[in-house]
């Protein structure tokens, strides 16, 4: 293992050990800042300076945030930095100037940094458990490889600082991807208004170590919602007609949500993924909720589903004399890659050490809020591509045994750093 | 306040301060035993000796029981007694011999002793909070007056020991009424096989202090069930057709449970009172549950509902390619009072100090597992009646502000002790 | 067979041969008028003079009425009379004065006269088929004994004219009972405002020939509705999202109608008895309907159900972006008998020739719009009872093989005529 | 207008005047045979000789067939031919030998000949009404252009007989396309086992006169089903619990059919297009039905939907204690064109008189049972293409005002005859 690889592995394990779910990436942000300070960058923004706070969605409540801030403090984050993030704004943007930073292209690299609210496996054959870097934050886990993403972001800065490039590089350390909540406020922050090229990266996605996909397509636009139904309780034996049954409302909604008509214009999705209601067998349920989502192959199809879902939710409530409040908790549009940028990545990957197979396209079939950033750049005349760096992963994404093959870390750094150098030179 | 009343009040407040939900009445049983030992009874059985353990329903798991045993130990229950109750069998039966215990009638008095799994109000105008005997067990509360019932049971023994009576008295300190789970195993224990007369008592039920109802009717037979649906998760965006959706199964079941046809033979009830399912908005839900109940004006009507509910639950699961496990968590038949015993109680109450109004009958419109004991006694040729002792209660039964008017405690003791003396003498 | 009985049988068979469904009793009314003219009564009102036309419900359209009027004309009804009924107002009220018509009580007898829209059996063992008086009106049948009722009404007038009585008798030949539509407009006509006693009669009801029930109870209040859902069609393969699916709306309504909560105050009913929608397998359905009913043990309970049903129907439509029109097609309140009048009928029946068994009460468990008349009389201080005259009937009411035992006709005439004489004399 | 065009127009109007729905094309088959006999073909098969009778689906009952046979006889079809078709097997296959019929390729042209069970407009601006060739068969109409298809089939034979071609031509005059029922038995008849090239043709499809689409794609595989639910009736007021409610079963099925999960592998469809149940508002419904369909972008996706639909239907019935019978009424797989054949048609169309615009592909978004024939040919090594000949049509397909622009008839004949000549010569 080269010293560079050793450093990447060590950094990734550090992140892996301290996963922080969406909007709680206090220690993670602090650790990134610390590292970047050590490397030396030309500009560095954090927290409230990298987000339009109004545009955030799915943020936790104050108690929740406070607990994670305390946790970060105990883990070594500086009081100074924590004070700046305290309102619940996390993430960072690092700026590195290459040659001709004014005249050359502005190139952004987006890496996301949040963990997931799920427990990590402690099985003996789960490498993080076996080698002692399993999550120390109970109930949280880097189960989607964002620990590797943060590491690759730092690695690219280090590599380009050493090897040089043309133009200006902005690395976006984005919070809250898992709730499709962090990209929109970063897109609205002003920092990417001048970006000419945006690369986003994801590791794994069922592609093995040594494989690179130049342009991931098939992003479904998504809207994640929470509906809270409120009725009135009564004793189910003595006063069954005195209640207003929120569980009946919820069940009617579930049945009719899944029954929203398919659309001839393309794929749609709907899921009532987390539901509940009521208090006891003998009480007519006074409250219920659905946490769910709708998706569409295009943003318009997602909006078709959202409008229909709203109609179902409101009338299911009203049908059972209940009220309902519907909150949008996260949202992302669909997006597509620019062919010229995909061409370039495809060519670069084909000559990168360690890369054995290059695919031009593959479909995600899921959602990603990087699409907000991609569209923002494209709407202003820039180009964007979403690159996948393969990694052998024993468990699927989001499962308790997910892990990355650390051999893919230097491959990711090389492909992206080379691609950025080529973009600077050739402006595709 | 007489010394007797003072003692009843003090005892009731002690029970109130330490509510223990169904099957966890470790400290409560210990405290009753301690008190009865002090009074002196002719026989005293506890825990495994008062229940047919096989007939229990709705019992908690081992960890849960262990925690409450520890709690009881800290609160002063003796290790000795706790050892005897350890398997999760609570409750006690006290035997008091009057004159001619062999030749005279065997008379049982049933009082239930469990609390509810709900938090108690800490409002300033809630008397237990204001006077310092609010629940010390977080999340548990005597919100249905069983603290008063246990107290009355002890008070009756004390009164009859002093005043004498004919025959033999068995006071049944029954656990787990709130989950309709404790009466069946006590009925099957053998202890009431020789009972000629059974009186059960409840306080309140919307009747004011000074009012007595000689025979509560309108018990709905009930069956409390839990259905667990199991499917298979998948990513709702990428693989919507690979899951087997347990929430769809649950919602279809809820809709069709409430739609079970009404029955021409009398009142029926159904409720899906506590439901839930799934894990996250973007995962096809792999599990779901319904905790619910069916009731009927007669046991046959309840069984009609149960059979229909089973059919709905099984086919809702199968419809969505899920499995379902249905567990009966509690059950009680319907029952009626014996007129001769009601006559006697009505007459006695009419001459009891403090009683201002006597009703012959009123309808419960709910369920009570005392019906198991009533029917057991009746099936063997005995007679039973269910007596209500009114008490002003500011909040409704099962609410956070429920409380009893302690002036009703001595009234309850008098009515019941007098009734037992009259039964012994006149064998109605 | 006495000549009186022969005459009753012949008259009943004539009615049986020409059944006319609700609001189409043109020939039937004409035939009754003809008969009463022959007998001679003191006053005779028909059609528009016996109904408040505004209060009618469930009336057929003009073409339908015209066809039945033509039919009645061909069957011998006079043009003169048909002209008076033409607006679709059928039925008659005959007034017969006894002794002291001003000073004595006003007594009403209600008989209904409409047939049912169903085909009659032509089986060899169906007496009307075997003996040649099967329905000549295809698709219509006297399958509920109203042919016998009309006959008994005429028979009672004839008997009392001969035997005399005290007071004044009004016989109400009421149309449109089967759609619970004729009683309300007759109650509002003014004719029964001065009625002191009302007897209504029904034959059969599963009671054998020779049995009389003095007071039928258990009338469920009912409201019969039709809901028409309107959406928009589209090709189910090519444009599934362009339609607005009325069948989805209807199905959601059906599921939730049956799931309206049971009511603690008494029995309720709901039924979606006739539903349909759509045009072809490959077209998103643009229309659908539910013809259904709600009932309640009391009028208030029926109204509870109706309000809930309306809520369900409207929101099911709205949920699927459809509209719905809800029409009340018929309606009747609940009602109870006056004990004093039941006492009298019970006593009279006990001494009537041919009566072998007298029941004081039995429950209908269904609905009847006679309740409108009963309540109207009671609200003005009068008394009412609903009498059942048993008759052996091979098929059930409303089935193709229903028939009456004609031996019950003179029994019915005797019981009612005697009861009216007793009422006149004793004013119970 | 040339004499050839005049003849095509006259023939098409004759067919238009006598539309016969699926499996009832008695007169149509007879007329085609008559015409082919006049032209002279090398072989001609009809009815039972062109179908595997066992493979038919969606066939009418005997009375229905008899009525249409009588009708055809009155319209001039010969008794002889009608005798051969009598079992309900319609359609014909004509064989025309070109040069080298043994050594050259066998080329099939498929035209469908059935009408639709819907009334035709009699509006003054509907050309068939204005010019006197509106449907004379009440309730039936050529509303999808199959009259033009039959005409084009005859026209192509006539043209090729005159102009010559290489190989052998089989023109398949296929019955019962509208119920996706006629192609499967023709595919199984043996007649196309030796076919090397298959062209199918459709007119219109929203393409204007002068436009040709060389290869229609986007056929959805389809399965059309009928589910009959059987329960038990009871009086909804008196005996609500004695029935077994088929409408509840149907409604539960409808709700859950539409809620079958979307599939990640491609488009699916489901529709409950024609439903009904019950008899009267006051009867618990004893029967109900759903006539519906499922579709999929591939045959596998359609089968996924069908398996799920079956599961829903069976469990919805069982849930309400009803039985269900599910019958497949029609079915067609998906299919794709062979590029080489599309290339040829595209090239030919580009040089045909009257063709102004040639599209290579367009999506049908619906279903067609020609796919059975296409797949049968392809499975045996042959090639297939589905050609659309544009025609201005005022009303949409299947509507009362559908009509074709007769100027498209000679274009269709030319394109297809030229294509067949080119295929014979070049064997693409």
Description:
4 copies of one chain form a homotetramer. Chain A starts with a helix and ends with a helix. The first copy, chain A, has helices spanning 3-17, 26-39, 62-74, 79-85, 127-130, 146-163, 183-187, 246-258, 299-319, 339-349, 370-379, 408-426, and strands spanning 43-46, 92-97, 106-112, 168-174, 197-203, 211-217, 221-230, 234-235, 268-278, 283-284, 287-296, 323-332, 357-363, 383-389. In chain A, helix 1 (3-17) runs antiparallel to helix 6 (146-163) and helix 2 (26-39) packs parallel to helix 6 (146-163). Chain A has 2 domains: 3-219 and 335-426, Zn peptidases (Aminopeptidase, 3-Layer(aba) Sandwich), CATH 3.40.630; 221-332, Alpha-Beta Plaits (2-Layer Sandwich). With 428 residues, the first copy, chain A, is α/β, with parallel strands linked by helices. Chain A has an 8-stranded mixed sheet with strand order 1-2-4-3-5-14-6-13, with helices on both faces. At the A-B interface, strand 7, helix 8, strand 9, strand 10 and strand 11 of A face strand 7, helix 8, strand 9, strand 10 and strand 11 of B. Chains A, B, C, D: Mn(2+) binds at residues 144, 146, 178, 202, 398.
Which percent range describes the beta-strand content of chain A? Answer: 15-25%
Question: What is the terminal separation of chain A in angstroms?
Answer: 34 Å
Based on Cα principal axes, name the global outline of chain A. globular
Count of helical regions of chain A: 12
Oligomeric state of the chains in view: homotetramer
Number of domain modules of chain A? 2
Structural class per helix/strand content of chain A? alpha/beta
What share of residues of chain A is helical?
25-40%
Largest sheet of chain A: 8 strands, mixed
Radius of gyration of chain A: 23 Å
- Largest interface (C-beta under 8 Å): A-B, 46 and 46 residues
């Amino acid at each position: 293992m080269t010293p560079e690889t050793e450093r990447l592995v060590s950094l990734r394990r550090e992140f892996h050990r301290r996963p922080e779910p969406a909007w709680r990436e206090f220690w993670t942000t602090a650790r990134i800042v610390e590292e970047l300070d050590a490397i030396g960058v030309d500009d560095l923004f954090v927290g409230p300076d990298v987000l339009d706070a109004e545009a955030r969605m799915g943020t936790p409540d104050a108690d929740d945030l406070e607990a994670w801030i305390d946790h970060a403090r105990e883990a070594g984050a500086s009081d100074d930095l924590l004070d700046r993030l305290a309102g619940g704004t996390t993430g960072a943007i690092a700026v590195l100037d290459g040659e001709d930073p004014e005249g050359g292209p502005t190139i952004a690299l987006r890496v996301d940094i949040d963990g997931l609210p799920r427990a990590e496996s402690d099985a003996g054959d789960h490498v993080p458990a076996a080698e002692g870097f399993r999550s120390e934050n109970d109930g949280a886990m880097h189960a989607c490889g964002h620990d590797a993403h943060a590491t690759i972001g730092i690695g690219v800065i280090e590599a380009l600082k050493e090897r040089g490039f043309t133009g200006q590089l902005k690395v976006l350390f984005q919070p809250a991807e898992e709730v499709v909540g962090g990209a929109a406020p970063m897109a609205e922050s002003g920092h990417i208004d001048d970006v000419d090229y945006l690369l986003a990266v994801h590791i794994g996605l069922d592609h093995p170590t040594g494989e690179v996909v130049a342009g991931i397509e098939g992003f479904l636009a998504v809207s994640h919602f929470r509906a809270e139904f409120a009725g009135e309780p009564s004793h189910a034996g003595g006063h069954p007609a005195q209640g207003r049954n929120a569980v009946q409302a919820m069940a009617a909604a579930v049945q009719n949500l899944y029954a929203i008509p398919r659309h001839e214009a393309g794929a749609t999705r709907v899921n009532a993924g987390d539901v509940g209601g009521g208090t006891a067998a003998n009480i007519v349920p006074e409250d219920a909720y659905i946490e769910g989502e709708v998706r569409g192959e295009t943003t318009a199809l997602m909006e078709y589903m959202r409008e229909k879902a709203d109609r179902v939710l409101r009338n299911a409530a009203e049908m059972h004399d209940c009220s309902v409040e519907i909150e949008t908790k996260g949202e992302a549009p669909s997006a597509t890659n620019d062919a010229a940028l995909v061409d370039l990545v495809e060519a670069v990957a084909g000559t990168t050490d360690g890369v054995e197979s290059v695919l031009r396209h593959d479909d995600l079939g899921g959602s990603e809020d990087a699409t907000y950033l991609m569209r923002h750049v494209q709407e202003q005349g820039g180009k964007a591509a979403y690159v996948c760096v393969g990694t052998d992963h024993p468990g699927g994404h989001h499962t308790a045994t997910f892990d990355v093959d650390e051999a893919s870390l230097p491959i990711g750094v090389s492909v992206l750093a080379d691609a950025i150098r080529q973009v600077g030179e050739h402006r595709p």
